[in-house]
Amino acid sequence: MAEYETHDFDVIIVGAGGAGLRAAIEAKARGLRTALVCKSLLGKAHTVMAEGGVAAALGNVYPDDSWQVHFRDTMRGGKMLNNWRMAQLHAQESPDRVRELEDWGALFDRTKDGLILQRDFGGHRFARLAHIGDRTGLEMIRTLQQKAVADGIEVFMEVKALRLLRDADGVVSGVVGYWRPSGEFVVFTAKAVVMATGGVGKSWLYTSNSWESTGDGHAMSLWAGADLIDMEAVQFHPTGMVWPLSVRGILVTEGVRGDGGVLRNSDGNRFMFDYIPPMFAAETADSEDEADKWYDDHSAGRRPPELLPRDEVARSINTEVKDGRGSPHGGVFLDIATRRTPEDIRRRLPSMYHQFKELAGVDITAEAMEVGPTCHYIMGGVRVDADSAATTVAGLFAAGEVAGGMHGANRLGGNSLSDLLVFGRRAGIGAAEFASDRTGTVTVDQGQIDSTIDAATAPFDNQGGENPYDIHHELQATMQDLVGIIRTGAELDEALGKLDGLEERARRVSLTGGRRYNPGWNLTTDLPAMLTVSRCTTLGAINRKESRGGHTRDDFPTPDPEMGTLNFVERIPGGRTDGGGVGGTPSIASITVQPEPIPVMPDDLKELLEEAT
Amino acid sequence: MAEETHDTGTGGDVTMRLWRGDESGGEFTDYVMPAQEGEVVLDVIHRVQATQAPDLACRWNCKAGKCGSCSAEINGRPALMCMTRMDTLPPGQAVTVAPMRTFPILRDLVTDVSYNYEVAKRIPPFNPRPKTADEVAAGGYRMQQIDVERSQEFRKCIECFLCQDVCHVIRDHEENKTAFAGPRFFARSAELEMHPLDVNDRRELLQKEQGLGKCNITKCCTEVCPEHIKITDNAIIPLKERVVDASYDPVAWLGRKIRNRTKKTPAEAGATSPATGPAAVQPQFGARGIPEPEPSIAAPAFTATEAAPPVPAPAVDATIEDPPGG
Hints:
CATH class of the largest domain in chain B: Mainly Alpha
CATH architecture of the largest domain in chain B: Orthogonal Bundle
CATH superfamily of the largest domain in chain B: Alpha-helical ferredoxin
Number of strands of chain A: 18
Oligomer: heterodimer
Distance between the termini of chain B: 44 Å
């Protein structure tokens, strides 16, 4: 019989980034016993790395902005695959969510009138991103963290969640995990659970994501019977650092381009003018002269092509490099040095200045940066009800990057921070209402607790097996090479085979040392989720035989209108929770994929999309 | 571009001298790794984990200097492992990495920093003035950029706790932890005190319960701050001056109060904090198990400044009621 401690709450939130904190604040405000469980220390979650800003149609810089235009930009940026209701709620509610942060102490940069300043970003028609220099995520997470502390919300830090627990009726009723510092196991029982675990990027080699982004919430939800959608829709941010190799993938904010930075190839040409897609031709400048007028006055010219949505820019950079017009280290040049004064650059982009100076020895006020695409964000995720953030499993809610639908096939910059706030709050409300309505004593399946703990500790008894770091490195190489920014059917099929092989090897991991703060063990317990999510992305990518947003198929290079009406849904039939896979999880072979129609948009919203391009 | 290579770039080896152990003790262990160009200390530690010591404990998240997780003492100097390039360290010498000394050891390079989270709970939270009619109509508070910038400097803090680690008041005096907030939280209080909207008055709490007077402004905290926040000059000294105003110059204090806004009394401000009073902080994992640095690194670079800056103003001197801690 495994030993563990137990804690009981009304609402448990897994993940303490922006969405988790916002959900906790909301549930707590409704009088529920609320706790946060997070894998790292409080305040270190991936939200902290967001740079450029939070998108909300405040209209402080361009009064013509409105939720309707924000909704339109979001849907077009997502190549119409978005859940329209989520995009609508997001556009309508994000202004209030941003202003609320100010009521809680956030200090955004200001307009001359003393209101929240907004900056330009790709795909947003108006300057819309509220920001603090280029450290907006830090300001957001600190504000929410300090609010959560002030509200007295309990936080269980450095706890790795392993599995969701369900009661006899299949209702989600808790989580089992372990304290990373001590290695001791812990069970949380709750009337409702919110997944807010963020993304999956650590399964790719070059990523802007921290080690935490291993898809835990995607996988735990799937294992508990929830549906995932659009898992093939992975965003490669156009501008990650490429040199030195050790920093390859670290994010370079889109704010550089929003503030006037341009992309050039090895010939010195602003190559983005060669890649303007028909969908955006009407609103994109066709000369440098016109584009340059736009920065100061959006009515003086159309927007520069450097500010096309991220999927377009990332693909264009990829092509330039492939065609031999790249920078010395396999990227392209991002130039702000010749476009803005050193003082402006240091004031508007202090983190970027600091990051290049200290990590690459590059002074961005004097020379161009070398940048290239980096795995950044997954648009796909747990299928949710837009209004309540409820998943397809009773008692389980999801918000933030782990939830799917909001961003369709491609996310616009700045829309994730607003997503966290809008749907974090809604998940908090949804979970609080579910918990309040739930009657009877919460029970969990003892066998599931015991088997999870036994499976988690088994690699310590295994001798001479696999090294978990080797498996992780091979997984990253596989996903980078075969399920990267440009995909083909043959390579995706090859990836499936490799993933099966890696699952087999992951079953044979052996570990040394004890359970106390053992990163080899921590990685071993992350592997089942990484393998699961990688399989889902690959399956979705095989089935989506078209190119749409972040998903590009070299063998199907254009969008297919028919496919544009479908979500690909991954699930484990029967909601199996045990067996076959790694660490007692279901085998990745048990994951199925099938097309289902996306929700149909009402006519009044359709009209918004057709208005004024 | 950053083409310049140093001698770590061309095939040689680098010796990583890493502290291994737990609260009961430990020792430095050498790991020899092939050098690779452009790496930071954290990169090499990751390679040690992947190839030689899979259970080597090391806390990190973003590897981009943004989250403040990977704090350690590198060649005796508190720094972020992810922002310390190998080619900035003396060539041909072992690179020594030890856990932060001020906090209890969990394992290897990881310490128990819960002290900081306990202190955070005792800071009276942000408490804004009501919006004016104009602001309600405009949809949000009006503040000028120049007014928000003072607090924005402190909000750059990534909570790496290197300033707490280097602060002599708690680095050398465990007993002070029960009544000393430390530089990070003086910066937090300064941020709130200078916040254009906040109406709480934290000055008495700062002096009586958070040990502001114990700081003898040696500026070690400023020197190690990876965000280059001028903690001593821009946070601690102005706070000390405000406390002096409150204690010794009621007229100036009253003038400030009338001119600016109505601050809440310390008791009121303290009452809104979820954990009030001088709660003792008990380390989660018992006694400190601080490794002794190697003789070669016994004199950390930052100690050079300890004697340097004299106390600048008599007004500040007057606030030092308690004996300096370090």
